[in-house]
Every structure is written in structure tokens, then in C-alpha cells.
Write a structure and sequence with these properties.
There is one protein chain. This protein has helices at 74-85, 90-106, 129-141, 173-182, 203-214, 228-238, 242-249, 266-274, 283-288, 296-301, 318-333, 346-361, 391-401, 426-440, and strands at 3-12, 15-24, 30-35, 42-47, 49-54, 109-116, 144-151, 154-156, 159-160, 187-188, 191-192, 220-224, 256-260, 278-281, 305-308, 376-379, 407-412, 415-419, 422-423. The strands form 4 sheets. An 8-stranded mixed sheet has the order 3-2-1-4-16-17-18-19, covered by helices on one side. Strands 5, 6, 7, 10 and 11 form a 5-stranded parallel sheet that branches. The protein has a 4-stranded parallel sheet with strand order 12-13-14-15. It has 443 residues and is α/β, with parallel strands linked by helices. The protein has 14 helices and 19 strands.
Length: 443
């Protein structure tokens, strides 16, 4: 059975199209774009945004720990994150992740790469229950999931894991592979947490073992060069910077997504581009944690591929991530329109992030074209940010003045999952989420 969806305007890979019908097959893939058939299902449709980096459980931390405490930084915030992680049960994980995933859908994200590292039970027993809870939460919310179980061994460069990290740790590659074999119901990738948490000499064994396990080539994601302290400690330990160390240790290629890469040098950015790897930027979280600014304008002008992620999920809105990305580059350079193309900012930036997200997830997402998933974001014709605009500048107005509240509908695989901010069972999800947060964190 086919579904036909007709829109007044469609942001296709080759530009803006007028009056188009999307023919969607039973598997949720777009089979064709055809001239409109008279009726209209929506005003202006753009591809759903892939969320290339998320820690769903951290949604429960948003708004907590904002009182200044000495030299507050990423590293002190991390202690609060550990306290939360060590209290979570599988039931808590399901409730928090479901709420985060529903917010992603309302915010224009239609697929997510979940960087999942709270593996073991609260008493330390190994098992797949925490990962299965994330998979079930994605199914309940209706978002398309790539689960990235994280391989984590140490607490820093040549530093043993701390007690508060015990739920994250696998003591061997073999133990980690056993977990992968127990996780069913979602597509998987692999995620060495960082070079702080995985020794570089272990990475080749990790890749070889997981490639053998999946008989293929799963996507690989890693945190790298997020914090200046991380760079300094890597230099003190190995005599080089994290991205350079990574490039020396493995064959960087299109499978790799380097999350943050905030403090990448010009030479390292060139290495990333030449090896066809991706960078995943999380502008709201990078500002929230005080990480710094990646040189995204220079990187993309030189051919670099960028995706975005909601990371800590302190605020979940694809549009706001892109606005922070553009404005951060304006602040770096003290110039405007840093990520814009010849015809403007909005369409260029949205399509660029969608393409980067598709590469990071290694999925046919992020484009309204045959063979791609019918993951769609439909804009509200009457939203105030683009009143007085025509179709050519509407997406510029969306980036500069819009928000997730200007989204009329969201589709995943051709099925409407959000209608004017309302998702199925969202009220119940919010109530359960509030109760869990109050029990785990609230006073």
C-alpha cells in the first residue's frame, strides 16, 4: 500500500520544488516525487533532521546544577552526570529516553544516533536491559534509532576507571561484543567513548572484532578534542593531540564521526576532510558546557562534512542548534552569513546538516528524494517568523527567527507522529518523566 502526500513547496536536493506529491511505499521510503494531484497535505516541507549525537538520559539534568561553584566547568558538571547515571534503573531509562525522543520529534529531529553508555544494572550486573530500554523508548516515541553502545575502559589517559564510572565499563572487547549480541530491535553502530576512555592501541582490535561480529561495517562515533584540558593531557601523555593520535591509530574514513572536535587544529581539520570522516557538532551543549567553538565556517568551505546533535538534551530543537552554529561562527569571525550559500542561509544550512547527519547515521535519511526515508518536517504556513516572506527567503526567516513551535507536522517513515506540537501519549510521558526526575534529582 502506498501513501501520497502533497505539499505546496518541497525542499528537494536539487532545490525548491513547487506543488509536489511524495509517493511513499509500505516500508516508509519515498518511491517517487510527482506533480501535485490537486489536494494539499501541507505548506512547506523540508527533510527531517538526523540527530547525530544524543545522550537521552541527560535530559533529566536540564536546569539542575546552575548555581556557581568555584571553577565550574565541564568537569564539575560531569560529577552531577555521574550521580544521575548511577541511580538509573531500566524503567527510569525508558521514561527519560521516551520523553527526550518525543521532544526530538517535536523539535524537528526524526532519527537519532543514541550514544549509550549506561550499560550495567545499578548493582553492577552486566546485561542488555539498559540498552533494550532505550530501544523500547524509541519505538514508543516513534523515532528512528541508531543505537551506539559505547565501549569504555578507563577514567582518563592511562588512568583507571573510577568507581562512579563502573556502569559504563567493559573490561575487554570480548565482553563488549557479548553485549552487542544481546541487543535486538534497532540498528547498531559502535562508539569508543573517547581516547580518554579507550587506549588508542585497543581501537584496531575493537574494530576488527565488531566488523567480524556484524559481517559488515557499522558506523563508528567517538568523542574527541572536546575540552582544552583533554588536549593538554593527551599531549602530556602521547606527545600529540587527540585527533592526530586517532588518525595515527586507526584508518579514519567515511565510517568515522568525530563528535565535537572543538579544538581541532587546522592540520587536523585537513586530515578529517582528506580521510572523508564527519564532524558532529552540538552547538547548544557545547555552549551549555563551555566547550568552545569549532571552526565550522572554514571547515565547510574546504569541503568538510558537518552533522548536528542534541548531546546533553538540555534544550531539544534542531532549528536552535543550527542557529547557535551559525551565530557562533559570526562571533568567532565578527562577520555575518558564515555558513550561507549564494542563495541564502536557511536552505543551505538545513540541507548541509541533513547530509552530514545521513553520513553519520549511514542511513538513507535527510533528503526528500526517492530511496530515502519519508522523514519530513512540515512548516506552518501562518507562523509569524516568515510573515511577509516568499518561498525563496522563508527558510532564512526560519533559521533567524523560528523555533520548533513553527512546525505544523512531523512525519517518520511517512507516518505523522507530531501534529502542531502534539504527539501520541505525550501528556502521559511528561507526567511520568516529571515523577522520575523529582525522585532522582529534585529536592
Amino acid at each position: 500500500m502506498h501513501t501520497r502526500l502533497t505539499f505546496k513547496y518541497v525542499l528537494a536536493p536539487d532545490g525548491l520544488r513547487h506543488d509536489q506529491t511524495l509517493v511513499v511505499g509500505a516500508g516508509g521510503l519515498i518511491e517517487a516525487l510527482e506533480p501535485g494531484d490537486g489536494r494539499v497535505d501541507g505548506f512547506f516541507v523540508i527533510p527531517g533532521m538526523p540527530n547525530a549525537h544524543s545522550h537521552a538520559f541527560q535530559r533529566a539534568l536540564s536546569g539542575f546544577g546552575e548555581q556557581p561553584r568555584g571553577e565550574d566547568s565541564f568537569w564539575s558538571w560531569r560529577e552531577a552526570m555521574y550521580r544521575l547515571a548511577n541511580r538509573l534503573t531500566p524503567e527510569d531509562m525508558f521514561v527519560i529516553a521516551r520523553e527526550a525522543f518525543l521532544e526530538m520529534l517535536r523539535g524537528g529531529f526524526t532519527s537519532v544516533a543514541e550514544f549509550h553508555y549506561v550499560h550495567h544494572m545499578p548493582d553492577g550486573r552486566p546485561g542488555p536491559q539498559m540498552g533494550l530500554a532505550v530501544i523500547e523508548a524509541a519505538r514508543a516515541a516513534g523515532i528512528h534509532l541508531l543505537l551506539l553502545p559505547v565501549f569504555y575502559q578507563s577514567g582518563g589517559f592511562n588512568v583507571p576507571a573510577r568507581d562512579e564510572q563502573r556502569r559504563f565499563v567493559h573490561h575487554s572487547v570480548e565482553e563488549y561484543c557479548r553485549l552487542l549480541q544481546e541487543l535486538h530491535g534497532a540498528r547498531l553502530g559502535i562508539a569508543p567513548h573517547s581516547l580518554r576512555a579507550v587506549a588508542p592501541q585497543v581501537l584496531p582490535q575493537l574494530i576488527t572484532s565488531t566488523d567480524s561480529l556484524c559481517r559488515g561495517a557499522w558506523p563508528i562515533h567517538i568523542h574527541v578534542s572536546e575540552q582544552q584540558r583533554e588536549v593538554e593531557e593527551c599531549q602530556a601523555t602521547f606527545g600529540t593531540t587527540p585527533i592526530d593520535l586517532l588518525a595515527r591509530s586507526v584508518e579514519l574514513n567515511h565510517r568515522w564521526s568525530l563528535v565535537h572536535a572543538t579544538h581541532a587544529t587546522q592540520a587536523e581539520r585537513h586530515t578529517i576532510i582528506s580521510r572523508d570522516a564527519s564532524v558532529v557538532l552540538c552547538p547548544v551543549t557545547e555552549a551549555y558546557l563551555g566547550d568552545g567553538l569549532f571552526a565550522a565556517d572554514e571547515f565547510t568551505r574546504q569541503g568538510g562534512r558537518v552533522a548536528i546533535g542534541s548531546d546533553s538534551n538540555c534544550r531539544i530543537d534542531a532549528l536552535e542548534e543550527l542557529r547557535w552554529l551559525e551565530y557562533g561562527q559570526r562571533l568567532r569571525s565578527r562577520q555575518r552569513a558564515r555558513l550561507a550559500g549564494p542563495r541564502g542561509l536557511g536552505a543551505t544550512l538545513w540541507r548541509q546538516a541533513c547530509a552530514g547527519g545521513a553520513a553519520a547515521l549511514a542511513e538513507p535519511v535527510g533528503a526528500i528524494a526517492p530511496g530515502h526515508r519519508a522523514d519530513l518536517v512540515v512548516l506552518d504556513q501562518h507562523a509569524s517568523p516568515w510573515l511577509g516572506h516568499d518561498a525563496d527567503t522563508l527558510l532564512d526567516a526560519f533559521i533567524i527567527g523560528g523555533s520548533r513551535h513553527d512546525i505544523a507536522q512531523v512525519y517518520v517513515g511517512g507516518r505523522c507522529v507530531v501534529d502542531h506540537g502534539v504527539a501520541k501519549e505525550a501528556d502521559m510521558s511528561a507526567r511520568e518523566f516529571a515523577r522520575v526526575v523529582m525522585r532522582l534529582i529534585g529536592r
